[in-house]
Amino acid sequence: MKTMRMWACLAALLLVGALGQPQAAESEDVFAFIPSGGRTLLTQVVQSRPPAQEVRALLTGKHTREEWLGYLKARTGALPALKALSDKELLTLADYLSFNMPLPVGKVPAELAKADWGKVLPQDGRDLAMNNCQFCHIITVVVTQARTKTAWLGTMHKPSHIEIELSEPQREALASYLVINAGIPADLVPEELRAGGASY
């Protein structure tokens, strides 16, 4: 059983490695079909150059997901980039904010315009999935399943997954992202990502 798991992991890593290699005729991201996570969405909002006090309010606020969602919907005048987000993206952003804000005081950039948001902001659910779910199976196995948060957390606590180095808050955030964004129809998955993997 352990040997089979090792070979499955190796095969998945080889596939991911092959997909990660630049292709001469292909310049688009093969994983672009996976919805953006909250870090990416928040970066888009703060890079649209809204008033500094609006950005600081996002980075230092503490609210539930529902409270953040109401807040975001009420702030579209002050944060115009929010208007471009779909309802699912707004929910994803609100969910991310509920798990990650407020930032620790020392992490809030003094100069917002010069901040490297990719380094300032914690990983989002998409990041956690991309960085942790492909060790032993292709990412498609994860993102095509529509499951409850309880079901996702159950899988994450199985012996085959508990060894993945994620904190409990990260597991919660990943499960929450997947509840909102997974269940992607197979026909939206690039052909090269449809084969192989495991099932739960």
How would you explain this protein's 3D organization?
The chain is mainly α and 200 residues long. It has two domains: 38-120, no CATH class; 123-187, Orthogonal Bundle (Cytochrome Bc1 Complex, Chain D, domain 2). 52% of the residues lie in helices and 0% in strands. It is built from eleven helices and no strands. The chain has helices spanning 2-20, 38-46, 52-60, 65-74, 87-100, 117-120, 125-132, 140-143, 149-156, 159-162, 168-181. Residues 1-26 have low confidence and may be disordered.
In short:
The chain has 200 residues and is mostly helical. Helices cover 52% and strands 0% of the residues.
Produce the secondary structure layout:
Blueprint: H1 2-20, H2 38-46, H3 52-60, H4 65-74, H5 87-100, H6 117-120, H7 125-132, H8 140-143, H9 149-156, H10 159-162, H11 168-181
Helix pairs in contact: 2-5, 4-5, 5-11, 7-11, 9-11
